[in-house]
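Annotated sample (chain length 114).
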Amino acid sequence: MTIPKPDGRPLRLGGLSEAAKVLDLTKQAAARALRRPGAPAPLETLDMGPVYDLDDIEEWDMTRKKTPGPKSLHDVLEDLNETTDRATTAVKKLTETLDQDGRNAQAKSRAKTD
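Output written by the structure step:
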């Protein structure tokens, strides 16, 4: 049975688990987020917990300010590899420059003694 909203869309109800999926958070993080000012209030609270209009959760999620979470281990390792590659390239260029400077200095020294 589908219950329509006044605008004709079907009413999508869900508990904390469903709200967490909509928010792409854990249940614990979703519970914290939904306690913040401006978060949609539950339509009702049953023994199993709060019942939300999932469309309200979705709309609120699009407007709320989100802070990035910690990077995944994969992302950290990828960043480390990129940094290592840049450092290796810089060391190679520095070594080439020093080698060239050394050769130039030797050539000048030889030219003076000739």
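Annotation: Residues 73 and 79 are 10 Å apart (CA to CA).
Annotation: The chain has a mean pLDDT of 88.
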